[in-house]
Amino acid sequence: MNLDRAVMAFAGVMILISVALVYFVSPLWLIFTAFIGLNMLQASFTGFCPAAMIFRKLGFNAGCAFK
């Protein structure tokens, strides 16, 4: 698995967790979902992604999106 796929998998897991929290705990967890979406949007324009930096330090090989 390369860095790009790891970041996308992590974002997908975080969105699924936030949806479960909205359903089971409180609708206020939609703020967390919005934060994830905004982070993905800014990463698409700037190329800066904190999760990508962490995964890179964990040893994932670079992909096309995050170098």
From TrEMBL:
InterPro entries: YgaP-like_TM
Transmembrane segments: 7-25, 31-55
The keyword Magnesium belongs to this UniProt entry's keyword annotation: no
The organism's place on the tree of life at top rank: Bacteria
Keyword Transmembrane applies: yes
Keyword annotations from UniProtKB, A to Z: Membrane, Transmembrane, Transmembrane helix
Chain ranges of the Inner membrane protein YgaP-like transmembrane domain: 2-56
Descriptive protein name: DUF2892 domain-containing protein
UniProt organism field: Arenimonas caeni
